[in-house]
From TrEMBL:
Entry protein name: Fumarylpyruvate hydrolase
Gene3D superfamilies per UniProt: Fumarylacetoacetase-like, C-terminal domain
Domain Fumarylacetoacetase-like C-terminal: 27-227
Annotated organism of origin: Salipiger pallidus
One GO MF term: metal ion binding
Amino acid sequence: MAQDIPKVEQPSVAIVGSDERFPVRRIYCVGRNYAAHAREMGKDPDREPPFFFSKPGDTVVPDGATIPYPPQTENLHFEAELVVAIGTGGRDIAESDALGHVWGYAVGNDLTRRDMQAVAKDMGRPWDLAKGFDRSAPIAAMHPVSGVGHPDKGAIKLWVNDDLKQDGDLSEMIWPVPAIIAFLSQSVELAPGDLIMTGTPAGVGKLASGDVCRVEIEGLGSLTTTIA
């Protein structure tokens, strides 16, 4: 029997120097992966293994997007992040093999409804709506590994209206990319199209309507998002 089911568009990210796009399956995010950020959130970075939360794939928005200020928050936060794209899936991936599963890297911004997240934490509830709301994952064009290698150091910075707010280095990650992939693959089977947002340096803060937020990662370019 024929059914009138609307076609759902595949979420995707642009690819540098190509008309093709990288299809997005799932987005995994690492929490508190920079020591200074963990401390500014009131946590001890030396006492816990990595933990993860998720965003739906269709929360992705491109570089240059103007997005509406989200509802149900008065404390929208920016978080500059390195994004890892998985090209070859697997389960229980050895740390020594992990980089062989990476397709590329991009600049990202993990937008967060911080007040909603704080309430969820206090009540012992999930963070889903604080992290995975509409348009909460701005991600710039993806750089294939063949063009940029595997960045494990380099400046990661974020500006709001040309005021520098975050100024860190990829080398400051508590859990580097190979360890993140290995640890995550113990819990879920990774697949092509998965993205991993690898955490943010210290300096996270508030965005207001009209703000222009720019993230730059050395060697990977920039990502600009305007809050309508």
